[in-house]
Amino acid sequence: MKMKTYRIRKPKIVVVGGGTGLPVILKSLRNQGADITAVVTVADDGGSSGAIRESIAMAPPGDLRNVLVALSDMPQFYEDIFQYRF
């Protein structure tokens, strides 16, 4: 008798947001093995992001940087370098 085998698929999740809460949620979902798509709002205008936005006329990198770190599996040392503020 031949048994059927079933593959369990990873859940596909889309998360929309920004700020400090989004990376926390994404890291938790990543640890659960979900297939994640993140839509990151980049409307930050405070602190370093505001200064970068004014001086170079680009989207503020803060929220995007935090999401990239949350979704990566790089060692803590590299994460600290990526998050370093000049």
Topology diagram in text:
Layout: E1 12-17, H1 21-31, E2 35-40, H2 47-56, H3 62-71, H4 76-82
Parallel strand pairs: 1-2
Summarize the entry for a quick read:
The protein is of the alpha+beta class. It has helices at about 20-30, 45-55, 60-70, 75-80, and strands spanning about 10-15, 35-40.
Describe what you observe in this structure.
It is a single chain. This protein is an alpha+beta fold and 86 residues long. It has one domain. Helix content is 44%, strand content 14%. The chain has helices spanning 21-31, 47-56, 62-71, 76-82, and strands at 12-17, 35-40. It has a two-stranded parallel ribbon. β1 (12-17), α1 (21-31) and β2 (35-40) form a beta-alpha-beta unit. α1 packs parallel to α3 (62-71). The longest helix has 11 residues, at 21-31. The model has no long low-confidence stretch (mean pLDDT 84). GO terms for molecular function: LPPG:FO 2-phospho-L-lactate transferase activity. Keywords: Cytoplasm. It comes from Enterococcus faecium. This is YvcK family protein.
